[in-house]
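Below is a filled-in request sheet from our internal design queue. Each sheet records the structural input a requester submitted and the sequence that came back. We keep these sheets so that new team members can see what a complete request looks like end to end.

REQUESTER: design group, bay 2
PRIORITY: normal
MODE: inverse folding
CHAIN LENGTH: 277
BACKBONE (tokenized):
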């Protein structure tokens, strides 16, 4: 019998959404859900963590549930323009073949977890999504999205995802990710719990620390001075930073091949580096 775990959800949500009043106006937590193979049938907006956790007790447990990382400015929309701020950078690292539409970099959770644990900037929260891992790097202060800052934050998310071998298509500011305390129902007959692996809400980051992994806009080159100031500062960081830069070059190569007849090369790159079609 499947039973949801509101305590896990509350622990996670208080770290990510515990400061909903910072924007000086109403803020809402978006939750979406559906049964596997069906259309999205569950979409609700909650004015507080407490309201969500209380309502969670009545949710059908045999559905997939996702939560918006960024709080929304109303109880109607979940697009970028509806997002107020972000309290964390985040990623989505898929593992294995089961339940994934494209090949993943890691064959098993142990190999992916080893990379995450060695990463120089340890995530504040790590969630086991059932099909992989979702790391969060909590900010000291929320970063507003009302002034168009989402583009830079998305580039930082992308750089962190590249460094960890994650999904570079899951970095947008309006992203919804799996909610701890629920189940990943992608595999028929095999519900996998979505759970917190570690929870260190006092591990906070300045945006400048995470920005060392920012992928620069296309056509913009990083200056030597900027690289010296913002780049990695120890051997472990050099390895991760170098991997991010190398995989970015592969992504650029894949884009140049898109639409050409050389599909075999592009498919080979995607098999190893999770590039979107």
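RETURNED SEQUENCE:
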């Amino acid at each position: 019998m499947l039973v949801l775990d509101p305590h896990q959800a509350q622990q996670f949500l208080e770290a990510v959404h515990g400061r909903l009043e910072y924007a000086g106006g109403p803020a809402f937590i978006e939750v979406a859900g559906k049964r596997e193979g069906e259309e999205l049938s569950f979409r609700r907006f909650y004015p507080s963590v407490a309201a969500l956790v209380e309502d969670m007790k009545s949710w059908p447990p045999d559905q997939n549930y996702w939560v918006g990382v960024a709080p929304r400015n109303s109880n109607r929309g979940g697009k970028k323009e509806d997002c107020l701020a972000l309290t964390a950078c985040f990623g989505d690292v898929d593992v294995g073949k089961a339940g994934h539409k494209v090949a993943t970099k890691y064959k098993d959770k142990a190999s992916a977890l080893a990379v995450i644990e060695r990463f120089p900037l340890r995530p504040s929260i790590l969630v086991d999504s059932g099909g992989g891992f979702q790391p969060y790097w909590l900010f000291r202060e929320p970063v507003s999205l009302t002034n168009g800052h989402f583009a830079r934050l998305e580039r930082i998310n992308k750089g962190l995802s590249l460094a960890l071998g994650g999904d570079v298509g899951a970095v947008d500011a309006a992203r919804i990710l799996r909610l701890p305390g629920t189940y990943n129902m992608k595999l028929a007959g095999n519900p996998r719990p979505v759970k917190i692996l570690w929870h260190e809400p006092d591990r906070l980051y300045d945006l400048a620390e995470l920005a060392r992994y920012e992928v620069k806009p296309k056509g913009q080159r990083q200056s030597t001075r900027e690289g010296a100031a913002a780049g990695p500062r120890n051997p472990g960081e050099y390895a991760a930073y170098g991997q991010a830069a190398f995989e970015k070059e592969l992504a650029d190569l894949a884009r140049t091949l898109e639409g050409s007849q050389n599909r075999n090369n592009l498919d080979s790159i995607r098999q190893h580096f999770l590039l979107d079609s």
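SHEET NOTES:
- Helices lie at 6-17, 49-56, 109-118, 150-164, 207-210, 224-230, 235-257, 263-273.
- Residues 6-273 form a domain with the Alpha-Beta Plaits fold (CATH 3.30.70.1790).
FILED BY: M.R.
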